[in-house]
Amino acid sequence: MKLFIIIFLLFCTSLSAIDLHLPISAVQNATSGLVLIYPSPSAASSNPACSFTGIETSATYLFSLEDLPFYNFNVQYGYHNFGFSIGSSFLAHPLYKENNSMFSLNYTYYKFSIGSSIRYLHNMVKGYHEDSVILADLGLLWQNGNISTGLSVCNVTHSRFLEEQLPIVYIWESCFSITNKSSLSLGLEKETDFDFAFKIACRYDVHKVLSILSSYQYEPDRIGVGAIFNLKDFSICYSVRTHQYLSLNHYISLIYAF
Amino acid sequence: MRSKILLIFSLFIVFLLAEDFEENIFSVDDETSHSTELSNFLQNIKREPINLNTVDENELILIPWLSEKDIHKIILYRKSHKIINLEDLHKIGLNAVTINELKECITFQTTPNFKLKQRSRFEYQQAKQYLPYSLNYFQKTILTFNNFNLGFICQKDEGEKNPLDFYSYFLEYTQENFLKKLLLGKYRLALGQGILFAPKLGTSKSGAATSVPIKKFNPIKPYTSSYEIWSLEGAAANIQLSALNIIPFYSNTTLSANLDTLSFITSFNESGLHFDEDKKNIVKEIIYGIATKYSQVDHSFGINYAKINFDHNFENPARKSDYSAISADFIINKSGFPAFGEIAYTQKKMSGVLGCKFGENELRHLLLLRYYQKDFPTWHGNPFSSQSRFDNEVGLYYGMTIIPFERTKINCYFDIWSFPQTRYFEKMPTVGSEQFIQLERKFDTNSLRFTIQHKNKEKYISLNEAKIRDYERTTIRADWWQNINNFRFKTRCEFLSEYLADDNIHKSGILAYEEIKWRIEKLTLIGQVTVYHSDVLHYMYEHNVDGIMQNSILKGDGIYSYFVLKYNILQNIELQFKVSDHWYTKDRMRVYLQVISSF
């Protein structure tokens, strides 16, 4: 039944489904897409100004449906004040495929960072259409003491797909370090034709080996929880996120920081 | 009447006192006017404050404003020091807002072993004056002598003739060795997270976002509530064998119920009103079972078993009249990382609650998952839920307490749930969510509290509805307290709106009140005037004589006011009086008179 609903949605609202804006890592799944609270190499996909050197891969079955595997891979490298990132996401179903490849560049000056990314989006609905488009995203980041704030705009180029404009998404996030072990992030997301989505996420470092992430998103109402196990330069993150009508979204990510 | 109230107000127009923080917990959308175990506990500890130097840890955890870390700090500190004053709590590391919440409930001195507490209350409602015997009467007497508590409670509602229409009695024996507690008479049972047994009245969600959702109970307590149903009658004991507690219980009681022509139970009379003596106490309920609990310093595990039998069948075939139930519960509190839960099984149905707390004192989190299968028996249970009848619900609660700065506290919770099966006359599964954010800031003589609460649920509005409607209810509330010597002013402004998205129906209302409280040594006076203009229901917590928790329901255009007097006539005798009335509305006056004595 659930699979039917999802496939039905993907077919009937194919344009809305394109550029699905799914969390591309277990960390983002746990934090409802807020990235400043636990920076990881995949953060550049949400805000190109974010810079965290390393490799991150993640995999999930969307809404616990084995027919909907979703894979992600991100690498970011820093050189002086510059950060370079490449990433790819792949949603695979025999009838519906979506591939999102990204390259981003950011520059940090003092407390400010600015970044931009170019994305190549390829979408195929078997028997209906197959097309691709190039989009650009823009991000800003400002860090001051215990507070960091980011703003990103996805699809600044107002790119179109099959004659219709893809959604433009504005994401604002502020992260507060309340203590050495606890952080709180607040965010707002606005997507074309949708209401503002309010987000709140928290991080608690239980131990140097274990961090806990939790978040809530309003409109639609969803709660995410995740645990990150830090083993030297490697981190493994496992997270779940609720959906009011569908099953839990389980994600697992492997992060290597260099 | 109104002119008298105005006169009294004009006399005490500028006064006030310490904040009533219990309002933060009990000011919820709940129509109950009965006191809960928590409200009783908070009122009791205001009357007889807890000695922080001697109080048992199990009682300390019942105070909703204390986090586990606060409790740990207090216990650690008192091992090597005596806590002498509030300044010591500051030294221990408690936040200023928390200390302010606590200060009326704690003491640093011991109390005597012999006590006789007595409470007599009369209530008169003009709206019910047409009934014969229209006076509501409540009486509670508790004698405490060393390890014994002997109590008798009786109540008569409006329209009931018999002054002993409802009564409760108990003999309680407590000590610190093998037989920790023995209770004879009427009592209440609370096990684990309350899936099988818990006090039925009580809030699950409130401004204490990371403490109140966790059910914390003494397993057996005398039944002292004026609520006339759900008491158990018989015997219960708490036997302690080292780290193991064994609680056998037996109850044989009768309940008032409505029966159909086949003598099947259609519903129970939960109101406690017995105008028809033929329907009074006509169903026999027998419960027996055993609860075991293995407790260590930082963890405990329990297994509970109960057999429940009614001597009548239920009209609803899904409800069995004879069944057994079993549950297992646990609390693990390792490294300040409390986890807790309960899983219950009966009639081939499962229910469970699972939660954990994490974080530091400055940022505390509570995650709580609940799962209750449809038609799971809910009769004596009251676990965390979005509704009073908790079966057929799956939900996740996320609460946070943030202390970003000294004197500032933010409480927020987010709760999402779904009813996976149809309920009542709804034709499809439905979902709902609730968001709550509250900011409190304390200044030297002022306090501010700003609250936003939003509920969103899918529901059928009436039986003939063909579709589900999105129903939204938003409350925005600002409270301001000002303390000037013995006076306290409280001002509230509240905006409330309800919205049916599908039909674009929008209703809203505003409410504002000014409350003045004046307290000198023997006398407390509270007056409040509320003005409201609303198309929707406002639930407003109001002060009352002790033992009554009241949320007034206000709708339409009007002015509502009340006046409360509490006066210590003698050292051990207190007179309490309350009068409330709706201006420009006939026959809505209510009068309460209560005498409390304590020797």
SSE map:
The complex is a heterodimer of chains A (258) and B (599).
Chain A: H1 2-12, H2 14-17, H3 26-30, E1 54-61, E2 69-79, E3 82-92, E4 96-109, E5 112-125, E6 129-144, E7 147-154, E8 160-161, E9 164-165, E10 169-177, E11 182-191, E12 196-205, E13 210-218, E14 222-231, E15 234-241, E16 249-257
Antiparallel strand pairs in A: 1-2, 1-16, 2-3, 3-4, 4-5, 5-6, 6-7, 7-10, 8-9, 10-11, 11-12, 12-13, 13-14, 14-15, 15-16
Chain B: H1 2-11, H2 22-26, H3 37-47, E1 50-51, H4 57-60, H5 68-80, H6 86-92, H7 96-102, E2 106-107, E3 114-125, E4 135-145, E5 148-156, E6 166-174, E7 179-189, E8 220-222, E9 232-241, E10 244-255, E11 257-259, E12 265-268, E13 283-295, E14 299-310, E15 322-332, E16 339-346, E17 349-359, E18 363-372, E19 393-402, E20 408-419, E21 430-442, E22 446-459, E23 469-484, E24 487-500, E25 505-519, E26 523-542, E27 550-570, E28 573-582, E29 590-598
Parallel strand pairs in B: 1-2
Antiparallel strand pairs in B: 3-4, 3-29, 4-5, 5-6, 6-7, 7-8, 7-9, 9-10, 10-13, 11-12, 13-14, 14-15, 15-16, 16-17, 17-18, 18-19, 19-20, 20-21, 21-22, 22-23, 23-24, 24-25, 25-26, 26-27, 27-28, 28-29
The whole-number mean of residue pLDDT values of chain A reads: 88
User: Biggest sheet of chain B, in brief?
Assistant: 24 strands, antiparallel, barrel
Mean pLDDT across the residues of chain B is: 85
Question: How far is the N terminus from the C terminus of chain A?
Answer: 44 Å
Strand order of the largest sheet of chain A: 1-2-3-4-5-6-7-10-11-12-13-14-15-16
**Greatest interface by residues involved:** A-B, 21 and 22 residues
Calculate Rg of chain B over CA atoms: 24 Å
Strand tally of chain B, please?
29
Number of domains of chain A: 1
CATH class of chain A: Mainly Beta
User: Terminal Cα separation of chain B, in Å?
Assistant: 35 Å
What percentage of the residues of chain A does DSSP assign to strands (E)? over 45%
Largest sheet of chain A: 14 strands, antiparallel, barrel
